[in-house]
């Protein structure tokens, strides 16, 4: 079985937290929309996970192949922070390795047709991703006719998860005292995101 059981992460809250912190998804999709088993087209797209509704929302350019996959399955890959693990981080009690966390989500595409729903999605996306910017930009800063013209160039998407899989390679196969040393040393080199997962 790969990844090994000790590297599999099943805590759904932990998986949700990673996709919220690292929202750029690599999306595997069928090369031919009639063949949903052949996920060999790839695109990257920021998505926002709405935990209350259990969906991802996003928009892409109209010519993006994803816009042609209404009701089709895709796979979303999310990668958290990662780093090299030197034996010196663990008092020479590990071999050189690489630490990382990732989430794979199998999901179904739903293309949004309603203008009202498109506007809601754009409002939700921009309000979320503008957090931390001063001043915060609002989609409402654009005149309504400009927004409507922009929406004609985009496809708005809801993506419904059907299966979550976490792969967190964080030395879980090592003794607790070794993991504590690694966590401490990761903190010292400012790898706080990875250290927080230990």
Blueprint (SSEs and pairs):
Elements: E1 8-9, H1 12-21, E2 24-30, E3 39-46, E4 48-50, E5 55-61, E6 73-85, E7 97-112, H2 115-129, H3 144-151, E8 154-169, H4 176-188, H5 192-195
Antiparallel strand pairs: 1-8, 2-3, 2-6, 4-5, 5-8, 6-7, 7-8
Summarize the structure.
By secondary structure, the chain is an alpha+beta fold. The protein contains 5 helices and 8 strands.
Task: List descriptors.
25% helix, 8 strands, 198 residues, 8-stranded antiparallel sheet, elongated, Pnp Oxidase, Chain A, alpha+beta, 5 helices
- Tell me the total number of β-strands: 8
Rg, rounded, reads 20 Å
Distance linking N and C termini: 23 Å
The mean pLDDT is 91
Q: What is the overall number of helices?
A: 5
CATH third-level topology: Pnp Oxidase, Chain A
Structural class: alpha+beta
Specify the helix fraction band: 25-40%
Number of domains: 1
Could you list the spans in which at least 5 consecutive residues all have pLDDT below 50?
A: none
Q: H/E series, N to C? A: EHEEEEEEHHEHH
- Overall shape: it is elongated
CATH architecture: Roll
Q: Assign the CATH superfamily.
A: Electron Transport, Fmn-binding Protein, Chain A
Q: What share of the residues does DSSP label as strand, in percent?
A: 35-45%
**Biggest sheet record:** 8 strands, antiparallel
CATH domain class: Mainly Beta
Characterization of this structure:
The protein has one domain (5-195): Pnp Oxidase, Chain A (Roll). Strands 1, 2, 3, 4, 5, 6, 7 and 8 form an eight-stranded antiparallel β-sheet that branches. It has helices at 12-21, 115-129, 144-151, 176-188, 192-195; strands at 8-9, 24-30, 39-46, 48-50, 55-61, 73-85, 97-112, 154-169. A hairpin with an 8-residue loop joins strand 2 (24-30) and strand 3 (39-46). With 198 residues, the chain is of the alpha+beta class.
């Amino acid at each position: 079985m790969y990844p090994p059981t000790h590297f599999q992460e099943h805590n759904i809250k932990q998986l949700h937290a990673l996709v919220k912190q690292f929202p750029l998804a690599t999306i595997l999709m069928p090369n031919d929309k009639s063949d949903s088993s052949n996920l060999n087209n790839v695109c990257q797209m920021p998505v926002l996970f709405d935990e209350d509704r259990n969906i991802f929302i996003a928009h892409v350019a109209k010519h993006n192949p994803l816009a042609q996959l209404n009701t089709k399955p895709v796979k979303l890959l999310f990668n958290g922070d990662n780093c090299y693990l030197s034996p010196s981080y663990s008092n020479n009690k590990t071999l050189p390795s690489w630490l990382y966390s990732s989430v794979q989500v199998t999901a179904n595409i739903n293309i949004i047709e309603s203008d009202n729903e498109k506007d809601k999605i754009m409002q939700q996306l921009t309000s979320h991703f503008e957090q931390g910017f001063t001043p915060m930009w609002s989609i409402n800063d654009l005149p309504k006719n400009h927004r409507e013209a922009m929406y004609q160039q985009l496809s708005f998407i809801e993506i419904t998860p059907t299966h979550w899989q976490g792969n967190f390679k964080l030395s879980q196969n090592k003794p607790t005292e070794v993991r504590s040393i690694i966590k401490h040393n990761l903190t010292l080199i400012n790898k706080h995101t990875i250290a927080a997962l230990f």
